[in-house]
Amino acid sequence: MSAVVTTAGHWRRATLLLALAGLVAFALADLSISRGTPGAELQRLAQGLITPDFTATDALGEALATTLAFAFQGVALGAAGGFTLALLWHRPGVRFFAASIRAVHELFWGLIFLQITGLSPLTGVLAIGLPYAGIFAKVFGEFLEEADPKPADALPGGTNPVTTFFTARLPLVWDQFRAYGAYRLECALRAAAILGFIGLPTLGFHMETAFREGGYSQGAALLYIFFALIGTQRLWLHRRLVPVYLLAAVLWAPPLSSGPDGALKRFLTTDIVPAPLRDGGGWAESGTWLAELGTQQALPGVANTLVVALAALLLTGVLALALFPLASPHFGHRPGRALAHLALVMVRTTPEFLLAFVLLIVLGPSMLPGILALALHTGVIVAYLTGRFSESIRPQRGYSQALTRYGYEILPRVYPNFLAFLLYRFEIIIRETAVLGLLGIPTLGFYIDSGFAEFRFDRALVLIIITVMMNLAVDAFSRILRRRLRLQTPATAY
Predict the structure, then answer these.
(1) What is the DSSP letter of 157?
(2) pLDDT tens, 46-65?
(3) Nearest-angstrom CA–CA distance, 88 and 138
(4) pLDDT reported for residue 2
(5) pLDDT at 492 over 70
(6) Of 81, 271, 358, 442, which cross-links 457 as Cys (Cβ 3.0–4.6 Å)?
C-alpha cells in the first residue's frame, strides 16, 4: 500500500512541477493581441469557413498530386532508412544519430536542402525522409526490442542471424510496422503541405497565399480538401496499391535536384564555415563570434522557445483533461464519440504551423497564437489517447452523476497514462515551438530563418545544432521523469 501512495505522491509532485513551470511561462510570455479588431477578422474567417470556394485556386490538382508525391517518397525513404538503423538499435551511436536527425524539423531540413538541391522535388523528399528515418528507427527499434524472443530461441543453434531475423523476429512485428507506416503517412501529408510555406508547390503554398491575402473562402476550400484527403485515408490506402502509389509519386515528381553544380561542396566547405575562419581569422575571432551569436540570438531564442513550449504544455494538459470524456465510452454513447472523432480529425489534421499562421492573422504577432496552436493540436491528441485508454476501464462504484464518475472513478485510473502521454509529447512540442519562429514568433526558428534569409548559413547551422541539443535534453528529461514515475507509453504515441 505504501508503494502505491508513494507513486501517487510522485505523480502529484510532477504535476505540480509542470503546472508551476507553465504558470511561470505564462507570466513571462507575450500574450498581447496587437490586431485592433480581432473580432472582425475572426468573423471574416468564420464566414470564409462556411463559404468555401473550390474554384479559386489554379493548379489545385497539381498541388494535391505534389503533396501526395512528397509524402509517399518521404515515407518510403524514411522507412527504409529507419529499418536499417533499427537493426543496429542496440548501439548508442545509432540511437544518438537517429535522435539527432529527427530533432530537426522538416521545415529546417527544407531550408537546408534549398541551398543545395534548389526548389526541387528532391528537397521536399529529403526534408521529410531524413527526420522520418530517425522516427522510424526509434519506433521500429522499440518494436523489435519488445518482440517475444521465444521463437528465435527455439531455432537450432548456429542458425544464421539473417535467417533468425527474417523467420523468427520480423514476422512478429510486421503488422505493427505496417500500421505505423500508415500513421506516419498521415504525418507526412501534413509535413508535405507545410513545406509550401518555404516555396515548394504543395497545398500549403496556396493555403499561405490565400490566408495571407484574406481569401478565407479559398483557404477554407483548400483546408477541407486536405481534411478529406487524410480523413479518407483508410479508404484509398490499400496495401496492394502502395507500390502503385509510390511509382506514380516518383513519375509525377522525380526526386531530382535543380541546384547549381557544386552547390553541395560549396555549402559544406564555404557556406557553413564560421565567418571568421572563412575570412582568414583565427580561433580567437571564432570564439568571439560564437559568444556574440550565443548572447544575441541563441540565449533569447532558447528562452522564448521554453516559454512558449511550457505554456503550451500546461494548456495542453488542461484541454486534454477537459476533452478526453468526449472520446471515452464512460461519458456518452455513439453520437458523442462520433463528434469527438470528427473534432480529432479536423484539429489533428491541421498542422500546428498552419494553425499558428491563421491565429497570427487574427490576433496579431505575439506568443499567444503559437501557444494556442500547439495546445489545441496536442491537447486533442492527448485527449483522444487518454479516452481510448479509458475504454479498458470497468467502473466498479457505479456513480450515476457524470462529474462524480469523472472525478472519483475514471480520472484517478487514467491519470498515469494521461501524464505519460503528455510527457511523451513534450519533445514534439519543443520541436514544433522552435519552427514557429519562421512565422515571426521569436523562438529559435526566428533566428534560424533570419540566418538563411541573410545568407549567413554558418549562424543558421549553429542555431539548428542548438535546437537539436535542446530537443535531446528535453527527450532525456522526459524519459527520466517517466521512468521515475513508472509511466509506460506505447511507441506509437510518438
Answers:
(1) T
(2) 999 999 999 888 889 999 99
(3) 11
(4) 42
(5) no
(6) 271
CATH of domain 57-260: 1.10.3720.10
DSSP of 54-78: TTS-TTHHHHHHHHHHHHHHHHHHH
Locus of grid cell 507509453 = 489
Inter-CA distances, 181 with 46, 139, 251, 275, 344, Å: 35, 10, 22, 42, 20
User: Of 127, 129, 119, nearest to 200 (Cα)?
Assistant: 119
* 258: enclosing H helix or E strand: none
DSSP structural state of residue 156: P
Q: Across the chain, how many H-helices and E-strands are there?
A: 25, 0
The region that residue 436 occupies, defined by phi over 0 for left and psi between -120 and 50 for alpha, beta otherwise, is alpha
Domain boundaries along the sequence of the chain: 1-30+272-494, 57-260
Q: Identical fold at 1-30+272-494 and 57-260?
A: yes
Single-letter code of the amino acid located at 254? P
Q: What is the tens place of the pLDDT at every residue in 245-278? A: 999 999 999 999 998 989 999 999 999 999 888 8
CB contact at 8 A, 202 and 41: no
